[in-house]
Amino acid sequence: MEPISSCRVCGSKTVEGFFDLGKQPLANSLPDRADAKDEVFPLSLSYCHGCTLVQLNETIAPEKLFSHYLWLTGTSLTAHKHAEAFCEAVLSRTPQAREKGYVLEIASNDGTFLVPFQKKDFPVLGIDPAKNVAAMAREKGVPTDPLFFGSRTADDIIAANGEAEIVFARNVLPHVAGTRDFVEGLQKCVSNTGTVAIEAHYAKVIQEDLHYDSIYHEHLCYFTVKSMEKLLNDFGLHVFDITESPISGGSLVYYAKKGEVTPSMSVVRYRQAENASKTNEFSQWKDFAARSFAHRDNHRRALDGGGAIASQGLPPSPCDRRHPV
Q1: Domain range for residue 200?
Q2: Which of 163, 228, 284, 300 has the greatest number of CB atoms lying within 10 Å of its CB?
Q3: 311 or 161: which carries more pLDDT confidence?
């Protein structure tokens, strides 16, 4: 475990803690015996006064979290439906893709999201660090290399395959310890005319709907549109459109290209909404922490007294929500 000393996105030292959940087990740490004790690690959030990114204060070694992974995308019916819609959405924003290149997915898991592209006769390549999952993808005919992705890996991919016309990374960027190195790799892999699509849970939803159950060791960063654009812009990638995703209780898909772009009205509306609700202000995140602890205390009182939970203006428990997956 390694504590951060600066912001993962902008490198600023002006990071300030505001939400401490104590020591918690890893989300995918499943003991093989009833009497086994979970290994626990600190779990707390900080806010960067430089770029407004909300992030974990500690980093668990990626090899510990992802080398042998338990989650399989293909087990979710919602994911299969989303994969088809996602494919159409990306292709509609990259009309030249068929004539020019292949499709590259980073953190491709079992290949579920590459299959719709294969059905349309696109060459595809998946990159995923979990050897067990990459093997499953290859068994069903999706070319997949078991690698951690970053700038050096990108160089190797380009040397072997050239630049991709479509590069996408779903629900992985918030998990990555080397945030900037990862985005540099994306920028290298996509062609000058291609599209990068990044899907990530949306911090505004987490903040407003009190999704404190979205905070765990795999999720290192909690992006808003503002902090995501800051990161991408640093590497010459610019968001030209944003759509919603049904994954993780509320996610966004950011479509970006190299060079300057004209943002869609969707991008403009998201920027305006964050400004209007003060999503990126530290005061809002401190309020999120206070409301989360109030929610905990309210439930404890109900359990101790055996009575109904008083709402006190708080949303339902995150455990009561029915996520799409």
Answers
A1: 73-276
A2: 228
A3: 161
Confidence of residue 324 (pLDDT cuts 50, 70, 90): very low
Phi, psi of 189 (to 5 degrees): -75, -25
Strands 221-222 and 54-56: antiparallel
What lies within 8 Å, CB to CB, of 296 at 6+ separation is none
Q: Over the stretch 111-146, which tens digit does the pLDDT of each residue have?
A: 999 999 999 999 999 999 988 999 999 999 999 999
Q: 292 lies in a domain?
A: yes
Q: Which amino acid is at 283?
A: S
Tell me: do 8 and 94 sit in the same domain.
Answer: no
In a domain, 64, yes or no: no
Distance (Å, rounded) from C-alpha 21 to C-alpha 24? 8
Closest CA to 261 of 93, 149, 142: 93
What is the total count of domains within the chain? 3
pLDDT tens for 215-272 read 989 899 999 999 999 999 999 999 999 999 987 777 999 999 998 899 999 999 999 9
pTM over 0.85: yes
Shared domain check, 310 and 202: no
